Structures are given as structure tokens and as C-alpha cells.
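Standup notes
- HV: blocked on the assembly model, inputs below
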Amino acid sequence: MSDNSGTGGRTRIIGLGNPILGDDGVGWRVVEAMRARLDDEAVDVLCLSVGGVSLMEQLVGCDRALLVDAVVTGAAPGEVLSIPLDELGDPSCGHTASTHDTTLTTALSLGRALQAPLPDDIWVVGVEVDPRRLHEFKEALSPEVTAAVPEAVRRVQEWLAGGR
Amino acid sequence: MSRITIDPMTRLEGHGKIEIFLDDDGNVVNSYLQVPELRGFERFCVGRPVEEMPVLTNRICGVCPEAHHMAAAKAADAVYGVEPPPAGRKLRELLYSAFYFADHTTHFYILGGPDFIMGPDAPVAERNILGVIHKVGLEIGSKVIQARHYGHTTVEMIGGRKVHPCTAVPGGMTKSLSETERAEIERMGRWAVEFAQFSLKLFGDAVLGNPEYRDLILGDAYSHRTYYMGLVDAQNRVNFYDGRVSVVSPDGERVGTYAPHEYTDWISERVEPWSYLKFPYLKKVGWKGFVDGKDSGIYMATPLSRLNAADGMATPLAQAEYERFYATLGGKPVHQRLAIHWARLVELLYAAERWVELATDPEITSPDVRVVPTKTPTEGVGIVEAPRGTLTHHYRTDERGLLTMVNLVVGTTNNNAAMSLSINKAARAFIKAGTVVKEGLLNRVEMAYRAYDPCLGCATHSLPGRIPLQVSIRDAQGNPIRVLRSEDA
């Protein structure tokens, strides 16, 4: 399999979501806040609105990867979770799937079957959002989700620090 | 009345789902695909400069940003009354051909194709790309990834960045192509032609060579006599990027063609109380409800529609496949919806051939890629063929170029009524009194809409594709009597 990873930094942080769909854009906000504080060439930061195979392709060549996304688990909006991707469950990983694609889990299995160099350590920092607020185009986050950004950034830093 | 719901388990509650309503005898009364709509896009855009639209609209969803980028750039050209120079126009079409190639590849191998290659009754766990590589060989997986890589690399070289291109602006493109880049794009395009031919051969062997699948494609369960729509060039051949929209009747007669700015003379939108998504129909024929036939204004806009609405393909290898397609399926137009998958592969080959044609065009490396707009902006419509249907962007601005009105008719929305017809018909054929509802049957109902390659991302948020389904069967009082999950099947 060819290297589709672009720059292929050792550690990659990816904010997922749609930046013009209200709280769905929280992943971007968190990693943008993170990017401003980062001074480490071995860590690269991307903002993407993709899932499935496209997302898997962005993980090729990384040693470890962190996905930051809006999640809906039933918790209160603004709650932050930080767990390995494996523990999140296949269908619930938010914007990491689309009807035109397959789930990230299937895509990762595909990549591994093709012996693509994919990281074993894929972590998720998720910010709980209210799904009823994801149907309106706007750039602003809701107050609860805005308030959760610093905590999500802290969890991203914690993951970064724990891995080295 | 009983009610069966095929509800994709997404993180968004009440997202896209199929509702099948049964009568007391267990027969299908009606079926609908229901999706909530994303609201407020027009309000979000009004007041912004029109030149932001090519970048802004490609954020509507992550599946076909290139299509929105192009439709928006063309609408913005029209707003400023400016025509891009030949190299600018050709670069846009080259980017778009490479995008089409990657997109159609993804659909065939990852979303729609596994139903055929693995069989509609194969367990869900196998009916995916992993099952395909297990059955056909690991090499196929590598090729699919390579195909996507080449498509995306070409988009990035011309479009300035991955996934969400940003170089098409009113009047043309912001950057030209170097000879080094051109040569690399040509090399990838030639590989793409071979891959498309390989894909058509695989389809021929695995699908057309199998009597069961052939019957499924040719059978009545997935057939509707509707109108068809697609962009055509001056010779009435399929074109993805530019031209007039051709409309043909269920008998195959061309009703007419329209220029982008005439779209409101041709298309009206029906609103139904049970769905946020509108149902576009042909204004000249009229809305007659969810029925097919010549008197019903329901139309389809898909790869099959584009082939039906055109007189042929503009490249030689694709033209030969076009002829084989109609010879095999009994002439034009073809009404069987599952033939959309085959039509998509004919288009895959056309996209690859067009990619090479444009990459070897002597004008493609010209530095003259933009005409700077000087006229006062007013109003404009841009139309391209998105992979899943005709995509229309319509903008109006004030004299400073600030948007005052935005209207989009997106690819999948065109097919909303036609998809409802297909789901209903498939449900009636496969779910009958006494029939035990099992996953294989429900998958056939899903296949009815999957063929359309619905991307609800424009009208809704992204929706997981190959994911577990939950099916609730309710009795006449609406109480759930049985819950099936596809992974248990």
C-alpha cells in the first residue's frame, strides 16, 4: 500500500467535525487552541471533515494519533471524555463515518489487512453535544460546549504528556 | 397498522431512517426514507461576499466538497458575468474528473459493490470491503486505496489542498499547473484508465456472470419508469462539469434541455408534512404523488440518469461500454435502478479518460487561468453534475457582491421522490404477509436506496454507512413486538 499520509508526523492530532455546523465544530476549536500552544515538530495538527477510509488514510504513518470530535453518548452537553478509540464502540464515533463510506473501525481493519503502517495507539477526546443542536448552520458553539473547550484542551495535553 | 423502522444507529437521534408501514395482514402499505434537514444555510450565507461561497459551500459536507466548490465557482462566475479563460476552465474540469474517479471508486468498492460481490444475503459482517478483499484478493484493496490516492493527489495539486479545494474563484483559478505537475497527473490518469477497465471487467465477471444477480438487476422489483436528467455537452454527450441539463421522458424522448439560469422554469419543489427534505419534480409535467409513469413529474438524477439523458459518452472506451450497457439491458432508457451501479462504472472509465485528455491538452499549463471580474455583480446560477445528481447553486447579490439570496438544489434531493418509490416497491416485493422479516430481505430494501448513492450530508449531517441497523416492528397499536439488529442476523 502506498503512503497516503501526507506529512506523516509521528504524533498526529486531528480535529473532526463541520466548522459551520454549530457544536459539531468543537473538535476544530479544541485543536486550533492546541495548535497555538504547541512547539513540537514531531506533533502535527489537522482539521478535517472526513471519516471512514479518508480518515484512516490520514492515520497512515503515525506512531500515535488523537481524534478530537463532538460525541453523543447521552451525557450532559459539555462533558468531556478521553478514552481509547476501541472503547468508544464502532458506530458511535460521530463524524468518523458517512453514508458514502464505511466506519472508521472497518476502514482501520482494511488498512491493517493491507499492511499499512497504522498506529496501535488511537485515542479519542470527545466533547458531549446535544444532537438537537446539530441541525443549524452557524459558526458559534453553544455556551456549554464553549465552556468545555479548555477542559478538552487539558485532556489533549494530558494524552500528549503521557505518551512520552 | 404495523410499522417497521430500519433505523441506522447514528449518533444523531432520529436521523435518516426507513419507515415501512404494514396493514393488519402484514402487507406493505407505504414506505418512506425520512431525514431531518439542516436548517439555516441561506441565513448563514446572506450578507457574506459571494466569492467566499466556493470555500464556504464545500464545508457543507465532507463527501463531495469538490462538487460544491465547482458549482459555487460557476455560480459566482455568472454573478459577475465573467467567463474563465480556457486553461482555467480545463483545470477545473481536470480536478473534477479526478474527484469523480475517486468518488465513484469509493462507492463501487466500499458502499454499493459489496452487496453484489458478496451477495445480498451474505452476513453484514462480510458484506463490506473486507469481505471483498477476502473473496477477490488482497490486491483489490491495495488498488482501491491507490485509486483514491491518485484521485486525491490530483485534486490537491490543482485544488491547493486536500479534500476541500480552494483554488476555483470567480473568473477562473488562482494558480496554474507546472509541467512537472502535469506529467505526474497524466501518469496517474493513465493508471486510472486501466483501473476503470479492470473494474468493469470485475463487474462483468462477478455480477453479470451470475444469473441470480442478473435477475435481481433486470427484475421488476427495482424498476420505475421515470424521467431522467443530466448535463450534456454541445453534442448531447455526458459532461460532469458544464453544458445544458437534458431531460428525457420514460419513453426516452428528449423533453428538452435547459441552461442553468432557466432551472426555475423546469424544477419545482414539493413539501410533504412528514419530511423536512423537499421533493423536486418537473414543473412542466406536474406532481401526481408518489407514482411513476409519463404523467408523473418525478425524475431521477444519477449515473444511470446521465447515461439515459445523453446520446453517448465523449471518450472512446467509455462510449464502447455505453453501447454494451444498452445492448445488454435492452435499449434506452434503462429503468432498472440497480443498473445505476453499472452506469457508475461506465462513468468511472469516462472520468479517467477525460482526466488523461485534459492532462495532455496543450493549453492545460497555460499561465492564463483567470479573468478578473470587473462587472457589477447581480445574480447567477451554476450547475455541475455531482456524482449523485445534478447540483444547482443559485445566488443573488447586491452591487457590492454581498449575498442577498442563496438557493441550492443538491444531488441527493433530486432523487428524494424516486428513492421513496424504490424503497416502497422493494418493500412490497420482499415483505409480504407471512414472510418473516430477516436481514437479507431488509438489506434488499436498503439496496433500493443505496444504488442512488444517497449522500444526505448536504441536506443533513453525515450518516454512518455500513453500520448495524436496528429494525423495530410495531403492532397496530404502535407497540414494539420485535426488535432485530442486523449484526444478529
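- HV (later): unblocked. Helices of chain A lie at 26-37, 52-59, 85-88, 104-113, 143-162. The two ends of chain A are 29 Å apart (CA to CA).
- Next: hand off to the docking folks.
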